[in-house]
Amino acid sequence: MSENLLFLTGKLAEKSLHKVLAEIQAAPSKAPDFKYRIAQIGVSVAALMTPELIVRRLPDAGDADKIVLPGLCRGDLRLLEEKYGIPVERGPDDLKDLPQFFGRGGKEPDLSKYDVKIFAEIVEAPDLSVAGILKRAEFYRSQGADVIDIGCLPNTPFPHLADAIQALKSAGFKVSVDSLNNDDLLLAGRAGADYLLSLSEKSLWIADEVASTPVLIPSRPGNLSSLYRAIDAMQKKGRAFIADAILDPIPFGLTESIVRYQRLRKRYPDIEIMMGIGNLTELTDADTTGINAMLFGIIAELKLNAVLATSVSPHAVNAVAEADIARRVMFAAREDRRLPRDYSDGLLGLHDRRPFSYSAEEIAELAAQIKDPSFRIQVSAEGVHIYNRDGLFHDTDPFKLYPHLKVDDDASHAFYLGVELARAQIAWQLKKHYSQDEELQWGCNTPKKDEKGRVAHRDASVKEKRAKKAQP
Is the pLDDT of residue 448 over 70? Predict the structure, then answer.
């Protein structure tokens, strides 16, 4: 049944909204089944709408079944639902993303589900105090970790290992301990560790001494036969376990090690399998977002059950958070039988799939409507555009734009424009989406924002000034 949608917008975006919605309706296939009406409620910039302003300016919703607001419209939508008696929802931040929005049925993808546990390793645990271990564990939990792995270092005393385990357990954590020392593993098991990494067929006797679930590995690198024997022994005992075929780094057998995981899953279709991903994320000088995306694609296809993630190298500082996003996206894509696209931008750090919403010609059309002195800044494939009632200026070098701005006597305004033009230049260079007065988005590396969607450290007076200069 066709829905009647009422889209609310501002003066500057009205023409573009008509064009985008007409294109959606004219799509040859898979066009969403809705009729629409657009109400322009008298503000220049749609993002400046609030529920209170809408209530004052929109008497009724007519025959609409639902109201769709600009994505950047803030405030409590319940006020509107009570006033008009129909559902109210936010669309995408950029109206040019409406085709993708309606391609999902007007809903955000469900990324609440996953089937891979993240073990986050505190590699230098022996060098930290119990309080330090707890602090690191809380950070990893905030990034999505399910289990905190305490790493033991070779030939390094760890006198507070049992205390650390018990403190973590008291704080509600699942705990694993990773050590090559049998005494450490026995102590950890007796102190209440949930998992022990890593037991081979030679140390399998430890599993008989404690209740902890063992993670099994080959007795020698690449020796799957020894791993098979350890698995068979645990199955005969009816004990829970996780198996790990060990992922090797580039160029020391990565491809062959992935093949080992495939063989392991084929031989044992129902067992739990772990992959330690730090040998790729830590030991490759490449952005870890892409590495995690690829690895979790393999993990989803093989239906592996757990990963051991590390966050030691500065370039891998968000590896646990990336793993959390990747497991959700790849699970959803596998279950939906869809390519892993348009689920999340959390792993898009450097570039965006749709960086430039407007062409230079469309920006020129918007600029022609401006009647006030406030500058708007937009980015197209051709470069950076800045405009107000006095003209439209375009370049790829912000320094060449400065002479046109005439802000020599206004230091605060010059500073503001300098910051925004620098962001716009970076966005153009990296092919990223730019939205005036908003931080550039770096996937899960983007600074956290407050409850109103703003970066927490911004000064309130700056927020107010920027709101007046928001782009359409």
Answer: no
Note if the pTM is more than 0.90: no
Query: Once rounded to an integer, what is the mean pLDDT over residues 407-412?
Result: 93
Tokens linked to 437: 């007065």
Torsion 212-215-218-220 (CA) sign: negative
Q: Model confidence over 212-249: pLDDT tens digits?
A: 999 999 999 999 999 999 999 999 999 999 999 999 99
Q: What is the DSSP string of 40-109?
A: E-S-S-GGG--HHHHHHH----TT-SEEEE-TT--S-THHHHHHHSS-EEE--SSGGGHHHHHHTTTS--
The sign of the torsion formed by the CA atoms of 9, 12, 15, 16 equals: negative
DSSP 413-432: HHHHHHHHHHHHHHHHHHT-
**For the chain, which domains are there?**
3-103 (3.40.50.11600), 117-336 (3.20.20.20), 360-467 (no CATH)
